[in-house]
Design a protein that fits this description.
This protein has 168 residues and is α/β, with parallel strands linked by helices. The protein contains five helices and four strands; from the N terminus they run E-H-E-H-E-E-H-H-H. The protein has a four-stranded mixed β-sheet. Helix 1 links the parallel strand 1 and strand 2. The longest helix is centred in the last third of the chain and has 22 residues. The two termini are 28 Å apart.
Amino acid sequence: MGVVLRNLQKVAPLRRARLRRDVDTLRHILGIQKFDLGIICVDNSRIQHINNTYRKKNMPTDVLSFPFYEDLRPGKLPCPLHRDEQNLGDIFLGVEYMMKQCQEESLDLHGVLTVVTAHGICHLLGYRHETEEEWNEMLQRESYILSEYNRLTGRHLEPLTKRCSQER
């Protein structure tokens, strides 16, 4: 199974091979290699449109996830009955939005892309952050994923935020 990675934005230079490698590492850590996953990199205009259409928030954001399995309990992998159900869903990455944040906070864009992709994958796997309890559960999972990622790659990534946020 695979990852479909599309770059539909031209605002920020994007090393797709590096992002694909990072996504493959995240999939390995989570044991989800048998599932398909779509990652679409977009600019502020497109992610704002999607955010307004699906969340009624007329502003750009860093990530939007659209799970194939909408009622998945956090920490439980889906049990597909057919090959065409081996799909986790799609993640839209607001690359332009993240690039501006990286410039303001002197962060590496590709590191942030990996962290935000891990966050998006958590959403595809049933994690939410509507309440403080859900946020803590999701943060714990993200922290584990990134610590394993760091162990395997020698990098030093960590979750971008440590508090409950309705913005994401």
